[in-house]
Amino acid sequence: MTTRRNFLQQASLLTAGVLLLPGCVMAEGNKNVGIQLYTLRNELPNDVKGVIGKVAKAGYREVETYGYSKEGGFWGLSAEDFAKLLKENNLTSPSGHFGMDAYIGEGKDEDLESYIAAAKAVGMEYVVVPYLGEGLRQSADDYKRIAQRLNKAAEACKAEGLVLGYHNHDFEFKQFGDTTGYDILLQETDPELVKFELDLYWAVRGNKKPADMFKAHPGRFELWHVKDMDKNDPKLNTEVGSGSINYKEIFEHAKEAGLKHALVEQENFSMDPFKSISQSYTYIKENLL
């Protein structure tokens, strides 16, 4: 949360012309910390307005949505009503996760059209593919077909002023000969149209070094999912700064990656979820940005 003290400190540094500020330099200077609302999936459906209010109180200024459908909207709210709720809480939503399996596998263009309409109504910048069903990704050729569909979707997004993004898990790093599904997606999609939301936890769990990925494909990773890995059980998440992932090192490469939006996500908790998201926010704001 920006306090008067923090504001004055930042203003004095800028006035003095100090360039060696701690932390990363995001592309286009965005220093907001966001959250993927899937983090609060158990609480959100029962109290949308209350949860959004608590997210804002924790200091977040950006949220990423999940689970939208044309029938159910955003947890029972239309895109327009959800946009109003965000505005009331001084929040914006730069991106949303929209299920794309039917679009990719069955050619349901109408799904994509409904997602684009919802994204525009909320004021989003990115329509993000969150996951690939197992049946879609059995071979290298499957990933090439997926890339073709992503390129087509990206063109449709661009025509409406949006950008298509792709969010990974760890299955994309499975080897197919001398390549991986993720490498195929990077190579076969248009770098000007398709950006990547790198889930840093899953990348590390997939034995990848994010800095190497940024160096190989500079500017393509405009969104990050920031969630830490439990030191005792790598299959579990923990609060950012409390786990085994060296986030200070990763954030040093933010500019090379093209980072514009850093979004906290956590899938399991050992404390109250709202205390957890506040702790992660504070760590990122004070130590990484």
UniProtKB/TrEMBL annotation:
Q: Does the keyword Isomerase apply?
A: yes
InterPro entries with a match to the protein in the record: IolE/XylAMocC-like (IPR050312), TAT_signal (IPR006311), Xyl_isomerase-like_sf (IPR036237), Xyl_isomerase-like_TIM-brl (IPR013022)
Residue ranges annotated for the Xylose isomerase-like TIM barrel domain, each copy included: 54-277
Keywords assigned by UniProt, alphabetized: Isomerase, Signal
Q: Record's superkingdom?
A: Bacteria
Q: Which Pfam families does the entry link to?
A: AP_endonuc_2
Signal peptide coordinates: 1-27
Q: Which GO terms describe its molecular function?
A: isomerase activity
Q: Which PANTHER family does the UniProt entry name for this protein? A: HYDROXYPYRUVATE ISOMERASE, INOSOSE DEHYDRATASE
The name this protein carries in UniProt is Sugar phosphate isomerase/epimerase
